[in-house]
TrEMBL record:
Keyword field: Membrane, Transmembrane, Transmembrane helix
UniProt lineage: Bacteria, Bacillati, Bacillota, Bacilli, Bacillales
Transmembrane spans: 7-25, 37-55, 67-90, 96-118
Organism: Lentibacillus cibarius
The name this protein goes by in its record: DUF3021 domain-containing protein
This protein's record includes keyword Transferase: no
Highest taxon of the lineage: Bacteria
Length: 120
């Protein structure tokens, strides 16, 4: 059941956004199509991995750590290969990692606060 929920959470936005990317591609907007497809991959992995927070017998630290590792092995490489950033050295990849971690911390904090407010 957990796997099916993960596929739904990630698959629905992936299908919608991939469809939009395909339409953009057929319109000759290749750069926009690529960017939209990359965003659809990110949406898939973020959506699918969010199911981790439904594993109630895990501590918040364990859920957050596992989620971070999954994001690190999926989203970070997508960012590196997306073409959205110039990568001329290892230092550039480190800067992208810092941005990745910073955005992750901000989003985690935001959703933590929202979850407390709305009792999710």
């Amino acid at each position: 059941m957990l796997v099916m929920n993960a596929l739904l959470r990630g698959g629905i936005p992936f299908i919608i956004m991939s469809g939009i990317a395909l339409l953009l591609y057929f319109q000759g907007k290749y750069s926009d199509a690529k960017g939209t497809f990359v965003a659809s991959l990110i949406a898939f992995f973020v959506g699918a991995a969010s199911i981790i927070y439904n594993i109630e017998h895990w501590s918040l630290i364990k859920r957050s750590g596992v989620h971070f590792i999954i994001m690190l092995i999926t989203i970070y490489p997508i960012l590196l290969l997306s073409g959205w950033f110039t990568i001329a050295s290892v230092f550039d990849a480190v800067k992208i990692f810092i941005l990745f971690a910073f955005v992750g911390i901000i989003l985690w904090s935001l959703f933590f606060i929202l979850a407390r407010i709305f009792s999710w």
